[in-house]
Amino acid sequence: MISQLDEYKIDNIISNSKDPHLTVKIHSLIKAYGTNQSFLKVWVNNDSCIIVRLDNNIYIYTPLDTDYEEIASFLCGSVSSINININIFGKDYTIQKLAKYVKLPYDIKYFNILTQLNSEEHIITNINIDTNPKLETVYDVLKSCENASFNVGEFSSWYVDISHRIRHNCGKSYLICFEQPAACCLISAMSNFAGLISGVAVKPKYRGNGFASELVRIACENIRKDDILPVIECNDEMLPLYKKLGFKLADKGARLEF
């Protein structure tokens, strides 16, 4: 049975998970916003499967014994009633099993979920990193790197969400200026167990200077200060870079697009 989740139950459910890299987005959203917001809906199935919807994104964490047919029916009803493009994020097997019961047209995109178990030493020592940059500047760097596989989205909704996460200690931002803003990085989600690094971007003219690597190292260092696990999601093209920084493949994730 699927029902709305009481906020006090979330820590108990996620604490029992052996996969902090899979629950960081869900836990961070609930930490930042709570469960009483009209734009954020949280459901639970059999006290183990958690579903969170924020605007047009749905995040799902499922144990192996989940009733995927029931979940798919519930989600398809939600998608039909919203009548906009929806993305459902989860572990690859979760998305694959859900897709078997989906009646609507869809597409599936896969990505890698990496964790870093060992800290890395910094290579660059003469670059100043702003740990409290203006988010407008961070957004400009991200926007300059936008392509078919890296979509930043509209500024106002991005700004409201990221600034809120930062205020509630569920996110952080970093910026390198080299003559002008050159590179940025975000910790876009932080739970009691993990911190998710995202938005790693370097303007084309500044690439090849090690800026991305240094930003990721700084982000990992800050995550470890909270005694939690650094996590990053990436496509196959970026795997060599993150493996050089000490990350290991932990899981495969997927996005179900309607």
* Secondary structure category: alpha+beta
Q: Which CATH-level-2 architecture of the largest domain?
A: 3-Layer(aba) Sandwich
Number of helices: 8
**Mind telling me the CATH class of the largest domain?**
Alpha Beta
Average pLDDT score: 88
Radius of gyration: 18 Å
Low-confidence stretches: none
- From the N-terminal CA to the C-terminal CA, the straight-line distance is 24 Å
Topology:
Layout: E1 2-4, H1 10-15, H2 20-33, E2 40-45, E3 49-54, E4 57-61, H3 68-82, E5 87-91, H4 92-99, E6 107-116, E7 129-130, H5 135-144, H6 155-167, E8 172-178, E9 180-190, E10 194-202, H7 211-225, E11 229-234, H8 239-244, E12 247-257
Parallel strand pairs: 4-5, 10-11
Antiparallel strand pairs: 1-2, 2-3, 3-4, 5-12, 6-11, 6-12, 7-8, 8-9, 9-10
Plain-language structure description:
The chain folds into two domains: 2-111, Aminopeptidase; 115-251, Aminopeptidase (3-Layer(aba) Sandwich). The chain has eight helices and twelve strands. The protein has helices at residues 10-15, 20-33, 68-82, 92-99, 135-144, 155-167, 211-225, 239-244; strands at residues 2-4, 40-45, 49-54, 57-61, 87-91, 107-116, 129-130, 172-178, 180-190, 194-202, 229-234, 247-257. The chain has 258 residues and is α+β, with helices and mostly antiparallel strands. Strand 9 and strand 10 form a beta hairpin. Helix 3 packs across helix 4. Strands 1-2-3-4-5-12-6-11-10-9-8-7 form a twelve-stranded mixed β-sheet, sandwiched between helices. Helix content is 34%, strand content 31%.
